[in-house]
Amino acid sequence: MTTTDSPQIAHTHSHPTPETHLTAEEQEWVNAFMNDTTLFLGPDPEIMREHSIAERTPLETRILANDLDPLVADRIRRRLAGALDEAFEMCESMGAAPGAKWADLSVAVYTASGDVAYMSNRGVIAFSAVLHHPIRHIMKYWKDEPTVGINPGDGFFHNDARFGMVHNTDQSMLVPVMREGEVIAWVGATIHEGENGACEPGGMPSGSETPFDDGLRGSPMKIVERGKLRRDLLTFLQHSTRDPKLMLADIKVKMGAVKRVMDIVDQSIEEFGVETFVGSIRMTVEDVEEEVRRRITEMPDGTVTVNQFVDSTLKENILIKFAAKVTVNGDRLIVDLRGTGPEIINRAINSPLASTKAFLSQAILSYWWPDLPRSTGALSPIEVISDEGTWADCSYDAPTGQNLQASFRAFSALQIAYAKLQFSVTEKYANVLAPWFNQINNFLWGGTTQHSEQVGNLCADLNGMSGGAKPFQDGEDAVAPLFCAMADTGEQEVMEEEVPFLQLVSKRVVRDNQGFGKFRGGMGYEMIVAARNTPNWGFMTVTSGASFSSVAGLFGGYGCPTYPLAMVKGINIFDIVKKDPSQFDLSMERVMNEQPFEGGKYQTYHMGLQFDVAQEGELYMIAQGAGGGYGDVLERDPENVLEDLRLDRISDRVARDIYQVAWDPETFAVDAEETQRMRDAERQARLKRSKPYAEFVKEFVKEEPPADVPYFGSWGQENDEHLYATVWGHNGPERVEGTVDEIPLITVPNRHVVKIGQLEERIRELEERYEEVTQHRT
Amino acid sequence: MKVPMTEYLYIDLESERWQCRVCAHDLGDARGNYKEGTLVYDRNPEEIHSPHIDPTKYKYTFSPDPGFCRILEYCCPGCGTQIEAEYLPPGHPPTVDMIWDIDSLKERWARFGENAVDVINYGPDENALADLRPRYDEAATAPAAQS
């Protein structure tokens, strides 16, 4: 449930309806008139703000009034689970999208109302908490609409997150299961397709400034009619994106996957009957909801607060807060997102609330209780308090091209909160865990391939997020994305057959790229790419975390470092290496520090690079992120420190200054006595340099955010409805404060215009200093 | 009874106090914010996450920008164990990250009837066995714990 009118909510965007004094008959006339004259059926707030499972349908009520044999229900469930996993593998094997090939998809069975009853074990779990929205829309608006309707064999497509999707790059195929003219269930397949016709290739534009820049705006539409793919709509969809072949191929792949599940659904209904089938899937949804409530009661009552700070709009550096207070009270769990920064109306980082909630569910079903069936029931009993108009609950008019910036923070908020909520719980369903890395440090790309095809998509390295440390072992390196169980980072050599760039360095761990701790987080790897053999190519990156660490550690452990994008423009590395093969010794550290290539323009950038045209052989370099560390660094086993040192995973500095270990540089043997002395001394040094909390707070805490940093969100947590923001007026940036509806619309100026202004000002200064008189005509 | 609430923090149910698991140092009222009982250091993040690429040449270097990010290191005043490391914008009030309902916690463990440090583990993994017993000598340190 999203609370919008409970006493806990001070702010609401709804307005009271004036008293109408209409009779029932008159009201009916008004309703009929309004229905007949509706100009536009946009996302329905009644559908989009609700994440609880639907009320039972009359059929479900009737069936569940009688006892349903749980063993039969389990047989149906297992059969569906097998079919869904098989359909998942079909998509993975046949899908044209890179995302499909590396598990960024899911296949599911839904109740008639759209609640996910069961989902493929692998893939994106977040889809279990977001795809009920489009089905509810179809059932509410299209089922009885004479020009649309729902018939056996129909299939519905959508991709727009404002109608319920993780983000606009995902595309669905939702197919009704019908008996005697009634919808009794749904089967759906959803794939991260990549290219969607946005202002930049690849489907996740960091540069979008309006919703129209986000690409295809597919509201739920009937793309398949009685088993036949509608060519007119297909053509429209193909025509709207850069990769028409991909669009056709994967719509067919999704139809095939759904057909496979549908066969098993039909067999199950034939064997057990409609009522048993419908009852079984509804029972699964309700059982999950009930079990989640029970597990909430196992956690101690209290409030855990997680504040996160994101350092970029993907065009300029800012600080925007993602606030979360997670309260357990008996069988209630309340996630209060107030204090989160306001939306920025011309930047791509905003997220619709439904997409944000999907990642609350992702945390619950993958990191809290991974044993539960992936179902809408998992998030259903959890209450969410959120102010519409914030960047995690954005308005219809906000661009959302890179909404993962906000929605992934919902995941991290619950992942971090759970480490504290669950610590004292005796029966755990997942291990205590430091924060998982939460950015898709990756290259998106687009242009003309060596086969003369237009493409736009991304490297599968987005799946190379590193795991957080556990209290008993180090985190795993580049193991899996937070959003996708058992994904893969793909084979670069396979990709190079299809796209005109090479990963000159791929999957080499970056030294010191580590969340330090008693147990360290998993480490991220380096990627260096360069375009080759293409008339037209470019790269982009879509993440934050170049100035403020994206994840912290847990219980004394440190978080990840920050990550730059480094580029060397104006060179052709292929020519250089051809002349001198020794120059193939590439690493970001060596290339950027030694600047070995004459004529190269060496530069760093934050990780939000809009589509950048790449000449042949120019270098683009990034690193995957590290997971958070666990526990005090001084408790790390010195042998583990030395093992990392031997493998060049850490530098001498980190071994000596962070972990406080002494060793013999010849033999790498730990000097246990000296290590003990160093660690004792460091503990004493901590006591000496640190201040009592009250004294520290008095000195450290300021009334307001730093004046020179554009800041968005509450300051502290005592009054999370009072937000700070930076707005740009006639005289440049200006700090404002107030509730979310009191703060003016935030539009960030074009950064190039800002830079030109700064440069012009500098020119004026220099002209004055050197008394050069120049007439500047405007 | 002592209930481990994090790797280094107990709540002592009888005294209703936060306590360091390493040295038994008293960290304040368990109904309040344990951070109030700690010592804190404002760490320049460049000292932990040092630059990999030359900061004199480049703006983004793998090091957090100290104008954007600070690391607040909380340690136990008794033993210097680092209890928490919090990444915050400069000047932002420290997050009160945990407030527990102590009456409910007491009732829960009374109902459960087992000693918390004996039954809490790190999770279902076969390696997730936890030894969350006090690291200090309970008999020797108990009188000093209420300092």
Helix content of chain A: 25-40%
What is the number of beta strands of chain A? 27
Mean pLDDT of chain B: 94
Enumerate the spans of chain B where pLDDT stays under 50 for 5 or more consecutive residues. 143-147
First-last Cα distance of chain B? 19 Å
Report the strand count of chain B.
8
Low-confidence stretches of chain A: 3-16
Protein name (chain B): Acetone carboxylase gamma subunit
InterPro entries (chain B): Aceto_COase_bsu/gsu (IPR016750)
Pfam family, one (chain B): Acetone_carb_G
Biased composition (Polar residues) (chain A): 1-15
Please give a structural write-up.
The complex is a heterodimer of chains A (778) and B (147). By secondary structure, chain A is an alpha+beta fold. Among the domains of chain A are: 57-292, no CATH class; 444-454 and 486-631, no CATH class; 634-690, no CATH class. Chain A has 19 helices and 27 strands. In chain A, strands 1, 10, 11, 12, 13, 25, 26 and 27 form an 8-stranded mixed sheet that branches. In chain A, strands 17-18-23-20-21 form a 5-stranded antiparallel sheet. Chain A has a 4-stranded antiparallel sheet with strand order 3-2-7-6. In chain A, helix 3 crosses helix 9, helix 4 (70-94) packs antiparallel against helix 8 and helix 8 (244-272) packs across helix 9 (274-298). The longest helix of chain A has 29 residues, at 244-272. Mean pLDDT of chain A is 94; it is low at 3-16. Chain B has one domain (2-146). Chain B has helices at residues 45-48, 102-112, 116-119, 138-141, and strands at 2-4, 9-12, 17-20, 26-29, 39-43, 70-75, 82-88, 98-100. In chain B, the strands form 2 sheets. Chain B has a 4-stranded antiparallel sheet, with no helix packed on it. The longest helix of chain B has 11 residues, at 102-112. The interface between A and B is large, with 95 and 79 residues. Chain A: Pfam families: Hydantoinase_B (PF02538). Chain A: InterPro entries: Hydantoinase_B (IPR003692), Oxoprolinase-like (IPR045079).
